[in-house]
Amino acid sequence: MRLIFAGTPEPAVVALKKLLEDSHHEIVAVLTRPDARRGRGKSLSPSPVKALALEHDIPVLTPTTLRDAEIQQQIRELNADCIPVVAYGNLVPEELLDVPTHGWVNLHFSLLPAWRGAAPVQAAIAAGDEVTGASTFRIEKGLDTGPVFGTVTEAIRPTDNADDLLTRLAYSGADLLAATMDGIEAGALHPTAQPEQDVSYAAKFGPEDARIVWTQPRHLLDRRARAFTPAPGAWTTLDGARLKVGELTPLSDEDSAAVDEVRKAAAPEAVAATPGELVVEKHRVSVRCADGYVQLVKVQPQGKKMMDASDWARGSQPGGKVCE
Q: Which residue numbers delimit the Formyl transferase N-terminal domain (predicted)?
């Protein structure tokens, strides 16, 4: 089939490579977001998908919006059979949905109808899901409501952060997308309407959503820290300055009790620990939460690089202070 590939970030590169290297379909053009300012110098850089397309001499379209009459005409003139979409980042106007013969087919990183929306991987981890996956579906007017061609499942590991899980899904999803294109071309694959029950939504998370609330229990802090790593990045404040938390680990009841003993030995007159209170040992930095302690593994103070929490504590001596 003649395909226009629509995608922008690194996970979409995996799918484009799969279609270029392991399928017989022809990529006649790539749709991606305009060049953006990246890095310390804030110089204009192409999206990862654009960079790969240019390596393969594929024409690239970078409209700010798909509502513009000129870009709509360009898409029509390309006479595509299908437009596979992976994290493109632009809304598809209703008037373009039926332009390709087989429509626009989106690779979405959840098992629809679970976690429709912009952040399905983060939402699945934050919710404590044990299994997620990827789905291919035909785009229609509603938000991720279109009929589904196929799915692939992926177990969520206890230590997965959003980047770990998305990386695995990018590869299994790329295989699914390529198989979906083959099935559509052969006329052997027909989409099935999504069920109306078990629908959930995953809105885009912002920095304020990633703030750690120390009055929550250990398991929730663990999930949310992993869900927001690497972006937007879990964080707290200490002495009024932001402290980014790159990794934390919930401590067992036994280890939490041991941390309490260390705290009491250092300050016998102290009252019960306050949520957010730091306890520093030689090789462990712990923070009190609702039902015990979590260990800080990686932290990033303002203006510095991510570092081991123990190294940070040796220089900052934060013991007894309270994160807020």
A: 2-177
Residue-wise pLDDT for 140-189, tens only, equals 999 999 999 999 999 999 999 999 999 999 999 999 999 999 999 999 99
Contacts (Cβ under 8 Å, ≥6 apart) of 90: 6, 31, 33, 63, 65, 66
Distance set, CA 83 to CA 86, 100, 277, 310 (Å): 10, 7, 52, 50
Is 166 annotated as ligand-binding? Answer: no
- Please name which of 66, 65, 151, 72 lies closest in space to residue 108, comparing C-alpha atoms: 151
Annotated ligand binding at 165? The verdict is no
- Positive or negative CA dihedral for 215, 297, 210, 305? positive
d(CA 29, CA 140): 22
> Residue 112, annotated ligand binder?
yes
- CA–CA distance, 174 with 165 (Å, rounded to integer): 14
Give the position of tokens 């959930």: 200
> Residues 305, 308, 310, CA angle at the centre, nearest 5°?
130
**What count of Cα atoms within 13 Å lies in the side-chain half-sphere of residue 234?**
26
Q: Which of 159, 155, 148 is nearest to 184 (CA)?
A: 148
Structure confidence by residue, pLDDT tens digits, 243-280: 999 999 999 999 999 998 988 887 776 677 889 999 99
Residue 42 scores a pLDDT above 90: no
Helix, strand or coil, per DSSP, at residue 177: helix
pLDDT digits (tens, 9 = 90+) for 200-224: 999 999 999 999 999 999 999 999 9
- For all residues of the chain together, what is the average pLDDT? 94
Q: Phi and psi dihedrals of 16, rounded to 5? A: -65, -40
Predicted TM-score of the model (pTM): 0.93
111 marked as part of a ligand binding site: yes
Residue 255, classed as helix, strand or coil, is: helix
- Locate 222 and state its tokens: 């663990």
Rounded to a whole number, what is the distance in angstroms from the first to the last CA of the chain? 55
